[in-house]
Amino acid sequence: MKKLAPLLALPLAALLSGCISFGAKTPESLLTLNPAVQLPVGESQRSNIAATITISVPSVPQELAASRVPVRSGGTAVAYVKDAQWVERPSQLFARLLGDTITAQTGRLVLSTRQSQLDPGAYLQGELRAFGIDADTNEAVVTYDAALTRGPETVIEKRRFEARVPVAAIEPAPVGAALNQAANQVSAQVAEWVGR
Known about the structure:
Elements: H1 4-17, E1 52-55, E2 68-73, E3 77-85, H2 90-106, E4 109-111, E5 122-134, E6 139-149, E7 156-166, H3 172-194
Parallel strand pairs: 1-4, 1-5, 2-5
Antiparallel strand pairs: 2-3, 5-6, 6-7
């Protein structure tokens, strides 16, 4: 009888496997951000020659703390684009895009937090206030409140950056493309400000 028990359990396990789900279904493809300006491959940078900057991952409101794409309508309602999901949190994607854009446009060397202890340089932090769709205007909206400390100064400069890009349809592919374009526009504006 002990030898039959495992054999009887196999059909039961096969039946249950179709009923059990460990998490939400993954979309067919995930969204990411691609920089409009590319960093040259193989080019070396040195902190004793190039100005340095440390970029912190921006803080976000709760609606952006997940990897989904929010859609705002009527000023207070928030929903999410069906089947649209980022490969990682928008704040991390945006910080990486900022780093690539600032390096490409200004020549500054972007340091990690640990590296910045050796060479403080400038420090950019901020809050990603909007990174989604405005259903009332059919636009992708990226709003970033930046705070910049230039080198050893104790003065903090603050500035809001925003870009709006029309969206053809509130579906994953057009939403991802429009948000990528808006994020690149904001990154370019921030790089120009940092480079002054």
